[in-house]
């Protein structure tokens, strides 16, 4: 068996795979944040809780209604997305004319409430959610073993990210969205229903978080604090990619997952902070983020 | 004094053909606490081009914004084709068939020229086809895939006008379409406006460039401190030149 700079390939590729999976979650979650921030100017701190809600809705669908993983992948984002729509209509809408800080405080508060309710109800030890039969097993690639469930997370995230990018950059609806991000007043004066577009965008961004939550359910356990742990890193990813940049959040998400994986191989002690170190450097060198437009 | 001036001249506008397509009366508007429009009133018949003339800060742009519903704090009456619009939001006003070409042009940087052109949805049947728009502004056709804001100022203005011609809007509100443009482009835009008038568009034109406006408009409304202080029909323009120069301070 060959070794790469003193690292056995099994360990290297294993960590890269793990990094890519983490990167998949970073990408989908930071994409949702970018979509929301772009149009609403709201830093959606509820995102982690909505990711957790996605996983819990999948768990509830299975345990209360007997609805399995594949349907949950579709239903949980819709259900959580609709909760997001209600949230936007009831609360967030009232803050658009105020400073970013108010939106941040509101969504942070809502995250605490939602997470608190689930902690109270389900505890923090985590609930198991078994992967469907189709995702069991794996491929032996020679240099490493690739479990199907992990490959699926990466594939599904990549498809959702590409689909979202495509809709935003290449379709008429996406053109409305980009235009409304720049100048909502003028877009409204063309006869486009901007408030509806905003609500739908928030619902979609939240649905992305919930989708990531369902993907996470069989891999990690379903836990009220699963979002809290992840969301801080995701915010760092968003800052590195550039607030509001669609392509930036996708590439940075996957890229930083890989960087984290590599760090775990070569300097394990640094793996927990590497993203934040990169964030600090990016903020020093290019404050608008790698893909952000300088303002 | 201004009330009397308006009362004396209003019948001229109204006697032309029944109810005006656009009828603005007693329009007041506010930016926050600041009262900017003080009873704007004017009528535009279908197929007419009228201008709002006046010094900077007289309330011309604000009037267009109030008609369009972009200025939300407004009272009075804006009737379009017999429908009262004063309480409608901008998107509903646009759906009635009114389109604005804003002073700052409003070309979207994150959209290509083609996307900018196709952005405003069709609100009424009978808008110009893309081919007709390219006929009016051949430059646009060459640059469809460019980023909207990479165009020259003149081309951006053409794009800003071109995109609202597609929508089927019958009333165009053009806010200083010649501002900062080279004379040859100003001519081209002038010719376009004349052609749009021949094709039956109704146009409210805000202009600083009086010589540009003079050749196009059926009637000029002189605006000062948020109200119309004088109305000069095209035929009486020559006789009123001195007065007009005094109004505009040129």
Q: What does this protein look like?
A:
The complex is a heterodimer of chains A (about 300) and B (about 250). Chain A has about 300 residues and is mainly alpha-helical. Chain A has eleven helices and two strands. A two-stranded antiparallel sheet of chain A has the order 1-2. In chain A, a hairpin with a 4-residue loop joins strand 1 and strand 2. The longest helix of chain A has about 30 residues. Chain A is globular and about 60 Å long. In chain A, about 50% of the residues are buried. Chain B has about 250 residues and is an alpha/beta fold. Chain B has a domain of about 140 residues: P-loop containing nucleotide triphosphate hydrolases (Rossmann fold). Chain B has ten helices and ten strands. In chain B, strand 4 and strand 5 form a beta hairpin. Chain B is globular. At the A-B interface, helix 6 and helix 7 of A face helix 3 of B.
Structural class of chain B: alpha/beta
- Radius of gyration of chain B, rounded? 17 Å
Strand element count of chain A: 2
Low-pLDDT segments of chain B: 1-17
Output the CATH class name of one domain in chain B: Alpha Beta
* Percent range of helical residues of chain B: 25-40%
Strand order of the largest sheet of chain B: 6-7-8-3-9-10
SSE pattern of chain A, N- to C-terminal: HHHHEEHHHHHHH
Alpha plus pi helix count of chain A = 11
User: What proportion of the residues of chain B form beta strands (DSSP E)?
Assistant: 15-25%
User: What structural class do helix, strand and pairing data of chain A support?
Assistant: mainly alpha
CATH topology of one domain in chain B: Rossmann fold
Low-confidence stretches of chain A: none
- CATH homologous superfamily title of one domain in chain B: P-loop containing nucleotide triphosphate hydrolases
Assembly level: heterodimer
Strand percent estimate of chain A: under 5%
